[in-house]
Structure formats: C-alpha cells, structure tokens
Design goal:
This protein is of the alpha+beta class. Helix content is 45%, strand content 13%. Bound molecules: adenosine-5'-diphosphate.
C-alpha cells in the first residue's frame, strides 16, 4: 500500500505547498495573518483548531475564545484568500486559538439574519420552511435562483448539472450507494473482504437471489443443532414494510430479490424493551471528506417487552421491530413527554441511563462514530467521482450537503451495528421530542452550510465577466476551432481541457482561481468550526492517530478502481464467463443436432414424396434422365479391349463347335422341312449326310 501515491496525500502536499508560499509572501509584505491555510491543514490532519465565535452572536456570553475578529472600518475586503470573511456586511478576519474546547452553541440567535434564499417546495415538512424563515432565509419557488434547494426526493443528474456556483442542494449524487439496503450490503461486504477485522460493523448479510446458496450453507454449517434466526427485508424497502423473521431459509422463494440478515437476538434492552438509535449525520464535503454527527437524536423503542425469537413470537412486530411507523399502531405506544420514559427518547436520556449503569458513554459514542465513518467510506470513491463529474465549476462553496439518518442497533455487549442509512430521514414533529431534536438539527445544519462565501450577486457578476473575457480573447485569436466546447460558466473550453473535464478531477480553473478555491475551502472549514452548533466533527477526526487509522481505507479505495474490483468479484466474473462459454457451446451443439435432424427429415420427406409418385411418372422421369445422357458418338476402344473381345469371340465359336450346337439345330430344321436354299448352300456336307441317313452328331 503506497500512501504517498494516493490522491489524498498529493492533495495535502499541494495544500501545504500553497500555504507555505502564501505565508512567505505575506511575511515579505509585513502583514500578519491570524488564520491561514496552515491551520486548515492542521485541521485536516486532525490537529484541533479550537475556537468559538463572538462578534455575530453577541447574546452568547459564555464563549471563552474568539474566532472572528472584526476589522478596522477602513479595511477593505479585496482578497478573501487573506482569511477575510464578509458576513452580512460585517467584515471578519479569521483568528485561530488553539487551547479552548469548543463549547456547543445550542441556543444562540444570529443578530443579523442570513442573506440567502431557500426553496422548500419539494419537501413535505413544513418545519424546514419555518426554521429557514427564522434564520433569515427568503423562501422562494423552484423557478427562482435559490441559494439552497431542500428536497425529500433524490434529484436527477440534469438538476445537479444545471446548478450555478452559488447554489447548494441537500443531497449528494450517488448517496444511494449506502442508502439502499442491497447497495449498502454490497459495499459493506466488499469492505469486509478487504478489511475483515475492521468492518464487522453490520450483521452478516446476503443479497438474494445471488447469495441464496451461501446463506443456506452458512445456516447448515454454523447452526446445525440450534437453528439461527434470520431477518428478511425487501431490498429497497423502508419503515419496516415487508420485514419478517425466519429460521428456515429453505422455505424462502430463492428467486425473489431481498436482503437476508442474521438477526441480533440479544439486543441491549432498556426497561425490557428493544430500541434502536436514529443518529443524524451531516456531510458537508466529500473531497475532502467532512462528517459531523449531531449530539442529540432519537432512540425508538419497541412496544412489546423483548423475548428472544421463537416460532410463536417471531410474528410479533411490536416486539422485534423498533420502527416508529410500526409501533405507533400499537396500543402500548407511550407518548410520555418525560425524558426517561416514552417510546421515543432523546440521546441525553439514553446517556443518563448508561451512565447510571457505569457504561463508558464516550467510548460507546466513539464506536458509533467509527461505524458511521466506515459506512460512508465504503461509498466514498463513488461519491467523490460523482461530485466532481456533476459540479466541475463549484469553486467557492460545496454544491451539496446531506443529513443522513443512521439506524444503529446495539447488542447486549454494547456493540453497535449499522442497520440502515436513510437519505431523507423523517422530519415529522408529531411529538415534543421530535420538535426538540429535529428543529435544532435543521437550524444548526442550515447555519453550518450557509457560508458567506456564496454571494449570489458577486458570483453572477464574476461569471458574466469571465464569459466576456473569454469571448474577447477568442475574438483576438480568430475564429473558434471545431474542437472547442461551450461551457455555461467558463465559456469556450479548449480541446486540451476537455479531457480533464471528463475525468473525475475538477476542471482546470483560470489563473489564481484554484488558489482561491483552496482559500475558499479553508474559509469554509473555519466557518464550519465556528458554527458547529450541537454537531461534533468526526471526519477528519480530532485525534491524529485516528486519522492515520482511517487513511488505510482511503488509500486502498484510491488504489482500487472506483467500483472497487475485489478478488471475489474477479472470481465471480471468471466463473460467469466460463458459464457463458459453456452455455454458448451447449447451444451450438443443440443447433448442430437440430440442423442434422432437419437435414435427415428433409431427405426422408423427399424419399416419401418419391415413393408416393405413380410408377409411370417415375419411369418417365428415369427415361428422360437417361435420354438426356444419350450420346451416339463412338467411344474410344483401346487395343487391349479389342484383343479381349476377339478372345471371347473365339471362345464362343469353340464352345458352339464342341457342343455341336450348329449340327443339332440343322438336324431339327431338316426334320421339320424348314431348311432354305441358303442353308443347303452354306452347309452342303451336313445336308448330304442327312440325305444319306447318317448321324450328324457323331464325330466321324
Ligand atoms: P426499514 O428500513 O424497513 O426500517 P430496517 O433495516 O431499519 O428496515 O429494520 C427495521 C427494524 O427491524 C429495525 O429498526 C430493527 O429494530 C429491526 N432489525 C432490522 N435488522 C435487524 C437485525 N439484523 N437484527 C435485529 N433486529 C433488526
């Protein structure tokens, strides 16, 4: 494994080089910069940039450190790469302070509202619009030039491709790789083969019908005496629909598409009930990968007390499933508003329960963070590739962010398992706990993703200027060649750049833009750190050792092709190829047999036809064929043939003489009075003998 060749390392080195150059330049100019790319790099490498904010949130008195320092009034923002940020007409210089721990800023209210617009027409949750308005967003229709589009459904590629540089959307292209049960299982199984120890983060899973045989083998080999329970789920289902338990895999229709998983039959129970955790995870960037987990979330409880599965109780969904959509139908559903009871509880209540029983709460959440990172890493190459393919021009801000709802089940040994990832977790607020958790989640998310770098007017102005410049340049250079392509923002792209655009790398930006892009990234990082709200950052991890640990997954995935070919997938392909060849051969043989049969049948048919023809006609055909062959010209007679013919003639004469055939016939003709004058003249001696009454047959 060569880490130095990985893109991840190259990118870090590039960042480091750029930041050093810039520091050198600034030193020469005698300007002191408080916050630089260097810090962003430290951040990226896991060093803590501890900082909080002051200026814009005046009412939050308990902040210990300053992150932003307002500038002198007469300083102008002419270079955002200097670490300057303009937020709502107040100018800030980023300042790094390394000692203090970030304190959660749960209840702060921005004094100045966020300038920007959001489109929520494609979301069924009215809460999103309401929270956006309280933050200062203008809620607009889809047809307007929105800053943020919040949608419940996954958008198509056309929408991604049509987005402008200041626009953001709440889904990443390709996130289905972990949000569909079958794709999630495929990716996690692939990673499990590559990292058998590290990726035991989900129950053993098979995708039917492909893995049906494997599952049967597993059940036969491992659980001969005590049958194991399996949970069967539709491959792309949700909300507990179509889920059932079984311990007899042979009873399943092997041709149906579904997911089969080993059932975790000893879950952690609270008050005797099974529960799962809905952990809200925010991704703000895929390259570099930045993941945040919300500290608050929901534990969803089953409504019947848990008993290990038996044939009698395996149909009791209120006992084995923890989905709200299933359990809300139970008469036992508890709507209690108190933190320590109810069928939905907040994480703070769960943490209290764990602490009371001397469980290591931090360690427990560390494990959950780990499985979240590993799950996202399993789809990371696809996410990165899709992002760069869809958003080649987003250099100022990230084009996407996404809140994922991870469903985590904990077993009695406190080991968490990932069950499912939801790309559009429910934002319904039926209960008080829902309102408390989800409202704060949306608020903190919107605050974190709306960096002041996305100045719509400025970006539109820049784009117009760029197009103009390009056109002018083109006019100077003469006419456009056929090998050039038109781009909505960059104008005409020369042929040399087209290939780069088709690859998974971002397009080559104009001079200085790349640097500006990196600077924008560092500012975005700083912004996010300053607006964590109740999020905790898990990627890049704060502990440098953890970063090194995750590097192995980055590196190996970078080395593999984006759709990660494993030894198993290669083997499967080989077997499939062999099978294909065998099938083709078999088909060929069958064809040959069929052709032979057909030929034989044709011959027989012809014979049958001939047989049924009247004899006279058959004879006429034969004669006509014979006549066609008739030829009266003399053939060639060889000497040997002539000699043979003469010999045979002599032999015949001899035979006639020896047997006295002529005498016998003559005597008969004489006795009958049939001899002619010619006969008397030809054989005078025979005639005389007969006249005398002598015997012609005797030799004398
Ligand atoms: P859905 O998307 O339909 O909600 P899930 O995979 O989340 O499907 O499963 C629904 C519920 O079933 C979970 O909340 C959990 O309680 C239970 N469950 C799912 N898989 C397992 C498993 N392997 N072991 C034990 N319980 C499980």
């Amino acid at each position: 494994m060569n880490l130095k060749n990985s893109k991840f390392f190259r990118r870090i080195q590039e960042l480091r080089r750029l930041s050093k150059d810039k520091l050198r330049k600034e030193k020469n100019r005698g300007v002191h910069i408080d916050y630089e790319l260097e810090n962003a790099l430290k951040e990226r490498n896991g060093d803590c940039v501890r900082s909080t904010q002051r200026q814009s949130f005046k009412d939050n008195g308990n902040f210990e450190q300053e992150k932003y320092e307002s500038l002198e009034n007469n300083e102008k923002i002419n270079d955002i790469s200097n670490g300057l940020i303009q937020l709502n007409n107040v100018c800030f210089r980023l300042k790094c302070a390394c000692a203090a721990k970030p304190s959660p800023i749960r209840d702060e209210k921005p004094v100045l509202p966020i300038k920007g617009s959001i489109c929520v027409s494609n979301s069924r949750y009215s809460m999103i619009g309401r929270v956006s308005k309280t933050l200062g967003f203008k809620v607009v229709k889809e047809t307007k030039l929105w800053n943020i589009l919040w949608t419940d459904t996954l958008p198509g590629v056309e929408l991604y491709k049509s987005m402008k540089r200041f626009q953001q959307i709440n889904h990443y292209p390709g996130m289905m790789e972990i949000c569909r049960k079958d794709l999630l299982s495929r990716n996690l199984n692939r990673m499990l083969k590559l990292f058998p120890r590290e990726y035991k983060i989900f129950p053993k899973t098979w995708i039917f019908p492909a893995d049906y045989g494997d599952a049967i083998n597993y059940a036969n080999n491992n659980y001969k005496n005590k049958p194991r329970t399996f949970i069967i789920k539709p491959d792309s289902g949700a909300m507990g629909r179509g889920i059932w338990l079984t311990n007899d895999l042979k009873s399943i229709n092997p041709s149906e598409r579904m997911i089969c998983q080993t059932y975790i039959n000893k879950p952690l129970l609270i008050d005797g009930y099974k529960f799962d955790l809905r952990v809200y995870t925010l991704i703000t960037s895929v390259d570099p990968l930045r993941i945040f987990v919300y500290n608050e979330g929901l534990a969803r409880f089953a409504t019947s007390k848990y008993v290990e599965p038996t044939i009698e109780n395996s149909c009791d969904l209120f006992m084995h499933l923890t989905n709200y959509s299933v359990n809300k139908r139970s008469s036992q559903y508890d709507l209690c508003d108190n933190d320590d009871c109810g069928s939905k509880r907040k994480f703070c209540a769960i943490n209290n329960w764990l602490r009371c029983r001397n469980y290591e709460v931090d360690e427990f959440w560390g494990k959950i963070d780990d499985i979240i990172i590993k799950t996202i890493l399993s789809a990371w190459p696809m996410l990165k590739h899709n992002y760069h393919a869809c958003f080649p021009s987003h250099d100022k801000i990230q084009a996407c962010f996404e809140i994922l709802g991870f469903d985590i089940l904990v077993d009695s040994k406190m080991k968490p398992y990932v069950l499912e990832v939801n790309h559009s977790p429910s934002y319904h607020t039926h209960e008080l706990v829902d309102r408390q958790v989800k409202k704060a989640l949306i608020r903190d998310t919107l605050l974190m993703v709306s960096t002041p770098l996305a100045d719509k007017k400025q970006i539109l102005r820049e784009d117009r200027k760029r197009i103009k410049q390009r056109l002018l340049k083109l006019k100077q250079c003469g006419t456009t060649s056929n090998t050039q392509r038109q781009h909505p923002i960059y104008g005409v792209i020369p042929e040399s750049n087209i290939n780069a655009r088709d690859s998974d790398e971002p397009p080559p930006l104009e001079e200085g833009t790349q640097e500006a892009g990196l600077s924008a990234l560092s500012q975005q990082i700083a912004w996010e750190e300053g607006h964590l709200g109740d999020f905790r950052r898990i990627m890049p991890p704060r502990d440098p050792d953890r970063l090194n640990y995750y590097c192995q997954f980055f590196a190996l995935q970078n080395q593999a092709s984006i759709y990660g070919e494993t030894a198993a997938s290669k083997k499967r392909e080989e077997v499939a190829k062999k099978m294909r060849l065998e099938i083709e051969e078999k088909r060929q043989r069958q064809m040959e047999v069929m052709l032979g049969q057909r030929r034989r049948m044709k011959l027989e048919e012809r014979r049958r036809k001939r047989a049924s023809m009247p004899r006279a006609i058959v004879e006429r055909h034969r004669l006509s064929r014979f006549r066609a062959q008739e030829n009266w010209a003399p053939g060639f007679i060889s000497e040997a043939e002539e000699r043979l013919r003469r010999t045979w003639m002599q032999m015949r004469t001899e035979m006639l003489r020896n047997n006295k055939i002529v005498q016998m016939i003559y005597k008969d003709f004489y006795n009958g009075g049939n001899l002619t004058n010619a006969d008397i003249i030809t054989y005078p001696e025979l005639y005389r003998c007969l006249e005398r009454g002598a015997d012609v047959m005797s030799d004398n």
